Amino acid sequence: VSVTQNYFDLYATYGFTDQFFIFGRASFLFESLSDPAFNGGGTTGIGFSDQWVGLNYRFLSSTDHSSYLALQTDAVLPAYSNSNAKIQKNAYLGDGSFDFTLGLLGQLDLPFLGDNGFALNGGSGFTKRTYGYASGIPWRIALKRDVKNGFYFSLGARGNLSLNNDSSNSNTTLQAQIAADQLAGAGGSELISATNPTWIVGEATLGFRFPAGNLLYAKGGLPLFGRYVANGVQFSVGLTFDLEGANGSSPTNSNIYDSKPFQSQPSVESESQTWQDARPINTKRGPRVGPVTFQKGQRRPSPALTGQFESYTLEGKVTAANDNLYVLKINLGGNKGIEKGQIFDIFSSTTDPVTQEVIEKKIARAKVAHVRSDESALSVVEYFVESWIEVGFTAKLLVN
Question: The whole model's pTM is what?
Answer without folding.
Answer: 0.62
